[in-house]
Every structure is written in structure tokens, then in C-alpha cells.
Amino acid sequence: MKAKNEGHALTSAGEDYLEAIYCVMLEHPGEDSVRSVDVSERLNVTKASVNKALSALKDGGFVDQTRYGRVELTEEGKTYAAEVWGRHRMLRSFLTVELGVDEEVADEEACLMEHALSQDTSRRLYDYLKRQGVAMEQE
């Protein structure tokens, strides 16, 4: 099986942290950075877990962090996070609209599935949903 994100070595957890940072930023338009505590609350994890993950994301070139603790996505981080969030929204739409899965269950399962899709499968599913007239959720 081909790796879905060739050239990137992020784990599913790393993708979850990137996605969480991205989503917190979407919830606060105009802000270029987020507090690590916001990420902690969104993922329901400890601040220590967030700090450990941020260190790995920083080493990978996905985030920058100021000495005051605010976290900013790099351009590469924004692109990667937007891709993960896009897969999540697409999968959630597929599960709820096409399969009739409960929204809460669909959200949880989309989170699991988003990490396993290859870019090719993701593109094919997107094209399928578009042909079916399924509206993709907006950011």
C-alpha cells in the first residue's frame, strides 16, 4: 500500500494535532496563532502531551512556537492541516449523507479514516461525491 503522504512522516496523532491547531485558527478568524491550551482543550489531552507533540511538529517544520507559548502553522503546516481537515469533512459528508450514519459517530469515524486514505483514494471519493451532488461541508 502506498503511503498517503509521501515525503511526510507524521503519525496519525501528529496529523490530529495539526488539524486541531488549524480548526482552532478557523474558529478565531484574523488570529495567526493559537494558545497551546486551546489545542489541549480541543483534543482533551494534557498540556504536557501538547508540548511534546508541538516539539515534534516544530522539528518537522510544521509549526513555530513563540516563547510565550502561542503556536503558528508554517506554510507547510497550513497546507498539510488543510488537507487533513478536508479529508475529514469529505468523509463525514460521505458517512452522513450517503450512508446515513449519525453525525456524532460519523465525526468520530471520519477522524479515524482520514489518516488511512491515500491521496488517490481521497481524490476518487471526492470526485464520486461531487458526481452524486453531495455538498461538501464548508470550513
Automatic annotation (TrEMBL):
Location of this chain's protein in the cell:
Cytoplasm
Chief place where the protein resides: cytoplasm
Question: Which ranges form a coiled coil?
Answer: none
Q: Does the keyword Cytoplasm apply?
A: yes
Q: Which UniProt key words apply to this protein?
A: Activator, Cytoplasm, DNA-binding, Manganese, Repressor, Transcription, Transcription regulation
**Similarity comment:** Belongs to the DtxR/MntR family.
Give the multimer and partner information: Homodimer.
What is this protein's name? Manganese transport regulator
